[in-house]
Design a protein that fits this description.
Keywords: Bacterial flagellum, Cell projection, Cilium, Flagellum. The chain is of the alpha+beta class. About 25% of the residues lie in helices and about 35% in strands.
Length: about 270
């Protein structure tokens, strides 16, 4: 019976964590470039139960011999858990804004259709990070930055100085100002599943400068929207809620049975 408590409780915890991931997706449904999290549930390793005991041999002499025996009962599973949350790097819808500092990274694939492409930025600690959010602006010093204030980097890993809003970005990612032309830093991650979310639309992980053969285009005055499917996410949230309630009822039934075992059976004995 105690094992049933753990199984039902693990089901409730896993559904709660799945619900939290889905709620976070809904909260970021309007965040440009946001990639929805997909949770995966996994069962705990199965246990093999065996009945252990002893068997007395035929008494040929006084006080027969005892031989240990093991009888296989079967396997048992002790519940599930949320193994990981994997970002879905599918392309979001592209929306026209008409704002010069909004740029959308469209496509972002390799010839073998693996991996993902990102804008390269620099966080407040001076570390390189990656994002798909092209909702940019120009700070007071004339640098191109994200809305959170992170410097947007060029292909040499340096912040991009625009000295104002008078600049254009070609489809190949060449940013042109009256003084210079620089290539936006576009990074390629061969294993998209290895990229880890860090908050504020930033990713960290193993990524390199986009190699030759990477197919993408930059659209100035456009934004890539979140790829959250709100209708499907709401349906998944309802399913997770129902599964949580089901495990809750099972847990309550075990609790009532345990109460009877303690109060009624114990009193009869």
């Amino acid at each position: 019976m105690l094992r049933g408590f753990y199984t039902a409780a693990s089901g409730m915890i896993s559904q709660q964590r799945q619900q939290e991931a889905l709620a976070n997706n809904i909260a970021n449904a309007n965040t440009p470039g946001y990639k929805a999290d997909q949770t995966s549930l996994r069962a705990f390793p199965e246990l093999l139960l065996k009945q252990m005991g002893s068997q007395e041999s035929l008494p040929t002499t006084q006080g027969g011999l005892q031989f240990p025996i093991q009888k296989t009962v079967g396997s048992i599973n002790t519940g599930v858990y949320v193994q990981e949350a994997i970002p879905n790097f599918a392309q979001g819808d592209i929306r026209e804004t008409g704002i010069a500092t909004d740029i959308a990274l469209v496509g972002g694939t390799m010839p073998d259709e693996t991996g993902s492409l990102f804008f390269t930025v620099q966080n407040e600690a001076g570390e390189v990070r990656y994002t798909r959010n092209g909702n940019l602006t120009v700070d007071g010093q004339g640098f191109l930055v994200t809305n959170q204030g992170y410097y947007v980097l060029n292909d040499a890993g340096d912040p991009i100085q625009t000295n104002g809003m008078e600049f254009t970005v070609s489809s190949e990612g060449i940013l042109q100002t009256p003084e210079q032309a620089v290539q936006l830093g576009i990074a390629y991650a061969a294993d998209g599943n290895g990229m880890v979310k860090e908050g504020n639309d930033l990713f960290t992980g193993d990524a390199v400068q986009a190699p030759e053969g990477a197919t993408f285009s930059i659209h100035q005055g456009f934004l890539e929207q979140s790829n959250v499917d709100t209708m499907q996410t709401m349906t998944d949230m309802m399913n997770a809620y129902r599964m949580f309630e089901t495990n809750q009822r099972v847990l309550r039934a075990y609790d009532e049975s345990m109460g009877k075992a303690v109060s009624e059976i114990g009193r009869i004995g």
